[in-house]
Amino acid sequence: MDVDMDERQIQARFVTKLNPPFKAPPSAITIPATVTRLGLSTIVNSLLKAGDPEWETQPFDFLIDGELVRMSLDRFLLAKGISAEKTLEIEYIKAVVPRKEEEPSLHDDWVSAVDGSCSRFILTGCYDGFGRVWKGAGVCSHILEGHTDVITSVSIINPLGDVTLATASKDQTLRLWKMDSEEGVDDVPAKIRPFKILRGHSASVGSVAAQASGSMICSGSWDCRVNLWQTDVSSAEGDSVSIKKRKTKNGTEEPQLEGAPVSTLVGHTQQVSSLVWPELDTIYSASWDHTIRRWDAETGKDVSSIICGRPFNCLSVGGEGSTLVAAGGSTPILRIWDPRKPGTSAPVYQFSSHTSWISACQWHSKSWFHLLSASYDGKVMLWDLRTAWPVSVIESHEDKVLCADWWKEDCVISGGRDSKLRISSGVPVL
Amino acid sequence: MGVSIPPKEADRLKNIVDENGGSSDEFDSEGEASEGSEVSEVATEEDGGSSGDEDASTSDGSGLVDDEDENEGSEEGADANGSSSDDEKASASVDDGLESGEGSGDSDSERSEVAEESDSSEDEVAPRNTIGDVPLEWYKDEQHIGYDIKGKKITKKERQDKLDSFLASVDDSKNWRKIYDDYNDEDVELTKAEAKMISRLLNGKAPHADFDPYAPYVDWFKWDDAIHPLSNAPEPKRRFIPSKWEAKKVVKYVRAIRKGLIKFEKPKEEPRFYMLWGDDSGAADKTNHLSYIPAPKPKLPGHEESYNPSLEYIPTQEEINSYQLMYEEDRPKFIPKRFTSMRSIPAYEDAVKDSFERCLDLYLCPRVRKKRINIDPESLKPKLPSRKDLKPYPSTCYMEYIGHKGPVVSISTEFSGEWIASGSTDGTVRIWEVESGRCRKVWEFDEAVQYVAWNPMPEFPILAISVGQDAYLLNTGLGNEETQRKVGELLHVEAAKVSDDSS
After folding, report:
1. Once rounded to an integer, what is the mean pLDDT over residues B339-366?
2. CA-to-CA distance for A61 and A52, rounded, in angstroms?
3. Fewer CB within 10 A of the terminal residue: chain A, N end or C end?
4. Domain named NLE: which ranges (chain A) (predicted)?
């Protein structure tokens, strides 16, 4: 083995949790120390190719001691203080980079909200007051008409089973839409009809979130309150007075039920900009009053709050055990808190690659480490907890990105001020 | 080392000693001088005085007697000291010594010739050692301590060691009278008479017993027939005027001081340590004496005090009358007057008063240096808060609301923070969504909008605008229908149709 004085060599062994086609031979090989991620990726690819001649090159990402390698190997080892004498164990994972950029789906106005929790379709809300259901890129299957003002937030309730859609708008109401469960074939659209209007807010509704079981939703508004509503069609609680008969696009007349809030959570002093309902009785709300509060849904009491110095725009709960709270606001820094940690209100992680307000953030539903964030600087960034730089940056929007979400576990959808809904697919998170 | 004995007595004593010769009683055979016994015999005679003078033949000044040879010759052995009159006679000598008196035999005879009854110091017997004022230290390494009159070296006597000398002194009853003369390297033994003389001197009395200090004064001089004064010279003037001699001396001193020949203080020693960071002015200002604060200068007379000032200085009658109207303290203290001739100038009334007050100013008024206030002018400036205190402060521009064509002069935010209303000089009022930057509504006017303000009551989303000369209340059209209805009632107009410019 020629040891060049300038180039140090490191013994390394590649391991992976991926399935067999990706498994590289476990023997140790010697690699030069100055190699970067790209170099490592080529090495692994060549190793795999050696095993399988029809192998297609795939980008890989590498972890050493649970941290992604983002610089050349020797600098990484130096920074971490890992000795280069022993055999390094490098784990590789598929690089989380979108492979394909779908066609943009054009709206009439700014796309203010997207929801991709159901894998069959995408629900978007727009500044023209209409909600839209998309089956795929550029394929709009339904338009939800009914709101008189800008739609600020949308939510898919109960994505499995009887799907209900909720839209929140600046006309101070929320509307619930029922999707008929007769799916059938793709080209026969199921009917969507509005069945309930929820009034109760005295100011624009800024956000809406659904309970996991789907029977209740909560909404936050500019009047600093969070209201909880029932979503059953046949709800005897609350006033179910049919007031208006409106024509939907499909021409059917449906009686509109009006709903009143079941309970109200009072505590914030500024607009409630984002809500998450992860467990049966825990609601997280983020507000412009610099706090993230955790509520007990049963009692309506404010259990705890995280105080940070900035107003929050978006909130998401996920990560390991679904307990990490990610929030972004009017600073370019995306912060992640762990509410289980006793006595600290300091964020556990901070990602600061954005250059403007963060308008949306969302954890991946399955992965412990991955989340995305969208910002007014026009970029959607995918993050991995194990490294401080974004794993990938999607720059498909020309203007501010107002909302973003995951779809089908390997796509990233985002909508922005350029009135487009963009889908980036092929993101191999898991 | 010794007591000074008047020369006459010393000589006398010497002679007495010599006369009696030396007989050794308790002395060692070696060299103790026999003068001791002689001295005791002599003591009775010493009052007689001069009897021994003639016999001072063989006496030698110094009691060097170590010479065994000389010891036989008692006269010679009892060599009186050749020491000077100022010195003591060394009586006992140290044993084992080298003969310090080599030429003692010869010198003895010469030295023993002393003058009789002479008070002159010239006639004293010179000390044996002729080195004069040469310090004996120079001979400390030598074997001799000097030279005698004949030029021969006076060798040092070998001294007894301390033990032996101590023992000798214990045994010797006359030890208390023995003194070592190191100039001549001899031991001088005082006679009893000398000892008595010394004790009288130590008590402050006259050395001779026969002197009566309280004897009445016998005035030998007869004044009875003195009719003329001793001197009739008139008292010289110099007794009444400052002394000329003193003046000359003073001049001399002054010149010396000016030249720097006379120094008053010890030159200041440079301090070995000095304060690196000390204030330099601290030590220099603090002088021992009080700092001189001069008296205020008296105001010199100007034109107004003149006897005949110009006409314009003199106040008119009206002015003088107006002085009466003023308060006492405001009136001018001095009113100029004009006298055309010197005769008519009156006496200055305040002359004595002025000079008295001046004297008071000069010596009776305590003067103190006024402490000027040292205020650092920077400290008077109000302290600006530090940047940290002002945080959070805006540092980065994140949102821009683009739409106005002219400068925006007025901004107002709605109570909940959702909308911003802005008015600009291009005559438009726009309402913006805060979080997205979208312009919701535009109103257009002809003139420039000066001020916009939201209704402080959040239930009614009404905007007040000042445009040109007019003020408007605008129904912004926000809020749900109920609110709109209420606003409409409030404003007593129907909801105006406004252009919805959603750009």
Report:
1. 88
2. 20
3. N
4. 10-77
Q: Which residues of A155-175 are buried (b: 16+ CB within 10 A; e: fewer)?
A: bbbbbeeebbbbbbbbbbbbb
Q: Are A139 and A130 in contact (CB under 8 A)?
A: no
Give the amino acid at B282: G
User: Which DSSP category does B448 fall into?
Assistant: P
Distance from the Cα of B373 to chain A's closest Cα (Å) equals 47
Give start and end residues of each alpha helix (H) in B46-161.
68-72, 74-77, 104-111
Burial class (CB in 10 A: 0-12, 13-18, 19+), B42: buried
B129 closest CA partner among B36, B64, B75: B64
Burial class of residue B24, CB neighbours in 10 A (0-12, 13-18, 19+)? buried
d(CA A426, CA A94): 11
Query: In the beta sheet, which residues pair with residue A115?
Result: A123
CB atoms A127 and B502 under 8 Å: yes
Query: Structure tokens of B32?
Result: 């103790």
Give the closest of A288, A313, A357 to B417, CB-based. Answer: A288
Q: For the domain B408-491, what is the CATH code? A: 2.40.10
Rounded Cα–Cα distance for residues A194 and A256 (Å): 7
Minimal C-alpha gap between B445 and chain A (Å)? 26
pLDDT tens for residues A92-121?
777 777 778 888 888 888 998 998 888 888
Contact list, B399 vs chain A (CB under 8 Å): 357, 376
What is the CB neighbour count within 10 angstroms for residue B154? 28
**3-state class of A336 per DSSP?**
strand
Tokens describing residue A311: 């107003």
pLDDT of B187-234, one tens digit each? 888 888 888 999 999 999 888 888 888 888 888 887 788 888 888 889
Per the CB < 8 A criterion, the answer to whether A316 and A296 are in contact is: no
Q: Please report, for chain B, the start and end positions of each structural domain, with discontinuous segments joined by +.
A: 1-84+192-227, 408-491
Query: Residue B436 and residue A400: Cβ atoms within 8 Å?
Result: yes
CB A130 within 8 A of CB A109: no
Of A404, A402, A399, which Cα lies nearest the Cα of A418? A399
Q: Taking CB atoms and an 8 Å limit, are B437 and A400 in contact across chains?
A: yes
Point out the residue among A127, A199, A270 whose CB comes nearest to the CB of B417.
Answer: A270
- Distances in Å between the alpha carbon of A135 and those of A249, A424, B21, B240? 18, 15, 160, 139
Q: Are A265 and A283 in contact (CB under 8 A)?
A: yes
**Is the Cβ–Cβ distance between A365 and A348 less than 8 Å?**
no
At A257-310, the pLDDT tens digits run 787 888 888 888 888 888 888 888 888 888 888 888 888 888 878 888 777 778
3-state secondary structure of A377: coil
User: Does A400 sit within 8 Å of B502, measured CB to CB?
Assistant: no
Q: Give the sheet arrangement for strand A263-266, strand by strand.
A: A205-210, A216-221, A225-230, A263-266
Nearest to A353 by CA among A323, A324, A382: A382
Tokens of B67: 């010479």
C-beta atoms of B438 and A110 within 8 A: yes
Cα B370 from Cα B364, distance rounded (Å) = 18
CB B441 within 8 A of CB B471: no
Of B399, B418, B437, Cβ closest to residue A204: B418
Task: Say if CB A26 and CB A15 are below 8 A apart.
Answer: yes
Among A222, A314, A352, A417, most B C-beta atoms within 10 A, so best to mutate, is: A222
Q: Which of A271, A376, A402 sits opposite B398 (nearest CB)?
A: A376
